[in-house]
What we know:
Layout: H1 13-16, E1 17-18, E2 25-31, H2 34-38, H3 48-56, E3 67-74, H4 80-97, E4 100-105, H5 110-131, E5 141-146, H6 163-170, E6 177-182, H7 189-198, E7 201-204, H8 211-220, E8 224-230, H9 252-264, E9 268-274, H10 285-302
Parallel strand pairs: 1-3, 2-3, 2-4, 4-9, 5-6, 5-8, 6-7, 8-9
Helix pairs in contact: 3-10, 4-5, 5-6, 8-9, 9-10
Amino acid sequence: MSIWTGRSDGPRWHHIVTDSGDSTVGIVGFASDEGVRRNHGRPGASEGPTALRQALAPLAVHGQLSVVDHGDVTVGGTDLEQGHQELAAAVAASVSSHPVTFVLGGGHETAYGSHCGLRHGLNDDAARDSRTNESSRSPRVGVINLDAHFDLRRAEEATSGTPFLQICEQFDCGPDYLVVGVSRPNNTQELFDEAGRLGATYVEDWQIDQADSVVANFLESHDVIHLSIDLDVLPAGVAPGVSAPAGLGVDLATIRALACQVAASGKLRLVDVVELNPGFDVDGRTAKVAARLLWDIAAIVAG
């Protein structure tokens, strides 16, 4: 918990974060570079969880927010698959204990382990409901990915480019995947075809004025939302510290508005923020942007 430090002139995040107990938000870190390495990207995202906590620590607290930090799952060596299992277990425990869980990545391979954990946690909730004779109807889970990339790549092993194909195929939920901010020059025709085959919905970066209505329709048809924020959806000047900086990107105000729209739905259970690469950041700019997005989401969830 020593990373949660800062000035004491009023309540800030570092004052309220604990390592146990009930809270509005649970935090799990995923210190992983392996998916990016396998995807031939530039490493450094494993340092993202620490940088993001440092950016969150001094932010002011308004209202009744409470946060529990469950620590990091660290991918040792090249064993991403074991890391995914450990992340899923940590996220499942957090989902069962907190209204919303924040996962701090890590490359975008984070999303697969995060989503598996969400599903396990929801199953645990359903089992508790059945024991108390409450309704145990399986919720319809949707994934909203704010990203320049589909991350639907087919590969012999999991990478930072495969997580949503893994999710869609494992849970048979292609129509439950929405990606906003897709950059056509950075996604091959094969990836567009894959999205079509799965029945996924997408909004390209040049169509971003349509995103709020698309997201609203998606929220209406789902019970639970996993929001994945890949910081490379933002312009490179706003978010330079990422594994693959954007040539165009979607402006921060729009990404913030979409994240707040999802949070305000009351259906958000899981958020992962990925691809923060502190070694390439400028004045902590990307970490501060990521922290602001999480701050806004937490403020809405806490009411």
